[in-house]
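Archive transcription. Copying these from loose printouts into the bound notebook so they stop getting lost. Printout 1 of 2:
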Amino acid sequence: MPQAAGAGLLAFPGDTGPGLHRRPRQAILLPTAGLPAHRARHEPANRRHGPSYDQEPAVFVFDTTYLLYVFLPILAMSLGVQLYLKSTFHKWSQVRNSSGLTGMDVGRALFERTDLDAIPLQMTRGTLSDNFDPRHQVVNLSQDVAGKPSVAAMAVVAHEFGHVQQYQKSSVLMAARNFLVPAVQFSPMISYVAIIAGLIFSITQLIWVGIIFFALLVLFSLLTLPVEIDASRRGLKLLREAGLTRSDDDGRGARAVLTAAGLTYLAAAVSAVLTLLYYIMLAQRN
């Protein structure tokens, strides 16, 4: 998943803005027709006409629509893609690549054997925390990837080098995605505050303001998906150009790892769209 101005291997559903490893944060509570809870339960339906202006504050309840059609599907996708990614990465982490090169060595070979301009490689902490940082022109590799001669490590490095090629070849998709980075750094807070405040005070226009800011996050997530798929495609091509996919396991394993990682971005995009549709429904209902 892209960092503030970089790009990494995976995202988690609910990640609609920059930064890796964020879990879903959607936990919207909905007022009961704008009425205090005791009146919402007991007042006849034909007398409930719009918001109450009593002095008692509105009491919030869980919205079953959100639970059934947004939260649970997002949770299921999140768990599913994470389990699949972990199992796929673990499987191919146990398979040695045919060149016997560690992730760091694969990176050096890609610079030497392709037309990419060499930039620094360095190790970073964490698991699957690998990323290309265009601001500082450096590829960060996690310790498990940098020091292990596995098919999985080779695939991860190839993906990050796909991002390097996107940057050096001025990819339009990557430029469009990075153009939104400054906006999406502030959009989450503004959107959630506006939506929740709009619900509390029954101001529909404020909810729509929040939806507009949240839509920026959705657009960012949707742009990220083709950027990451393209990076994996470029990375696999770079491996072939460098002569590093010498066996069937090399090619098959690299594709499997990158496909699993790509599914995290697909799930994140679906999660963002579902959440946006739910917020639109809230505004219309309000």
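Printout 2 of 2:
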Amino acid sequence: MSLNDKLDITPRARSSHPFRVPTADRLLRVRMRPSGGARGRQVQLGPPLHRPHRFPPTERAVLTSLAGLIGQALDRARLYDTQHNVAGRLQAALLPHTLPDIPGLDVAARYLPAGHGLDVGGDFYDLIRLNDTTAAAAIGDVQGHNIDAAALMGQVRTAVHAHNTVGAPPGDVLSRTNRLLIDLDPGLFTSALYAHLDLARHAACLASAGHPRPLVRHADGHTEVLHTPPGLLLGIDPEADYPAMKVPLPPGCVLLLYTDGLIEEPGVDPDDAIAALAGLLERTDASNLDALADTLIQQAPNPVDDIALLLISLQPTSE
């Protein structure tokens, strides 16, 4: 940061320049220049001076240092804003713009950024049609809130998509994605949950990599927390195993997959938060998944972390 320490205390004529107060009074102005040698701008420090004033060297040094600090702060703010915009656009480009229309499957998805700060997270979801009778759903959360997390989110989503389209079972999909992350060595970990959906048999097979437990709302309204076998976060151990569990999903059931932003609250035990979410899911009408998704999102109006959720309901098989 280079500064012009010349202090201008001469009278200024009236001007429309946005950085000059239109007055004939004497003003104290210093020039701030951003890094990189770009031409700086004059700014007024303090109120107008109604009579000439000679600034001693100590005051000149203090005011010049103050201008330098302000200039550096503005420079960092512009850079931070640029990085945030890039990360946000990257994240938006990597998330699915629409979900596929799969006969026999009713779905709804939502994404809500954290209610504080400007950082961008690595939450993602996906729904893939495999064939006429099977589909796959995935949801995950990459550690961190920056461009690196958004970029890694895209790589994880692509890897999961590629592995399940070749017919790999849920545990193998996560195992192969895990080894890819370790090979990439991004220094970030990822939680993920993968579900293979059998539309003909009305069942699901799920595997988890350190992800929050999914919920199932049964046709009678009763809601169950699925205790999927625990698995390590992706990106830690190349030999990690991800066992799967099968659950029935008869017509009228709703499967809820979500990231931890939906239940994370300072001072609240995660198990208690999941129980509260299960209670809300049980009390809410599930006939319209879009309305249900909105209700679930609204219970966290100012989340401390990004939220992604995916609601899935298998429909009766046509005769």
